[in-house]
Amino acid sequence: MKKTAFNSIVALLLASSTLAFSQFAIAHAHLKTPVPADKAVVETSPQNLTLTFTEDVEAAFSGVDVLNAQHQPVAVGKATLNDKHHDQLIVPISQPLPSGNYQVNWHVLSVDGHKTTGSYTFSVK
Ligand SMILES: [Cu+2]
């Protein structure tokens, strides 16, 4: 009897951890790897920002706003998806960025229909 009770507790724990894991697996798109990286200091202006998410995203409903240290918007091109990796958004920088700090505010719609937003910063030396 004791062993049966133990087994059902184990089964319950396994079931709940599987549930927790699957909820994590279907979670919204979170930013995994931005390039330049969060808080990076780069030598020269990047030509693109590349943002890799934890899930595939819809380019048409995803994009970034880049602000300089004076909180003025910086001109960026239309965000497109990497052809082969639909979790990767590529944003062309229209004109080379002068030295300074930049804030990237991103918003994406993941393929599961959820919207997420976030921000990070990087600097050009
Ligand atoms: Cu989601």
TrEMBL record:
Which InterPro entries does UniProt cross-reference here? Answer: CopC-like, CopC/D, CopC_dom, Cu-Rt/internalin_Ig-like, Ig_E-set
Query: Which keywords are on file for this protein?
Result: Copper, Metal-binding, Periplasm, Signal
Q: Where in the cell is it found?
A: Periplasm
Q: Hey, what's the signal peptide range on this chain?
A: 1-22
Q: Which Gene3D superfamilies match?
A: 2.60.40.1220
> Which residue range or ranges hold the CopC domain?
28-124
* Entry keyword annotation includes Metal-binding: yes
**Domain of life of the native organism:** Bacteria
Q: What Pfam families does this protein's entry cite?
A: CopC (PF04234)
Major place of localization?
A: periplasm
Function per UniProt: Involved in copper resistance.
Annotated family? Belongs to the CopC family.
Q: Which protein, by its recorded name, is this?
A: Copper resistance protein C
Query: What taxonomic classification does the UniProt entry list for its organism?
Result: Bacteria, Pseudomonadati, Pseudomonadota, Gammaproteobacteria, Enterobacterales
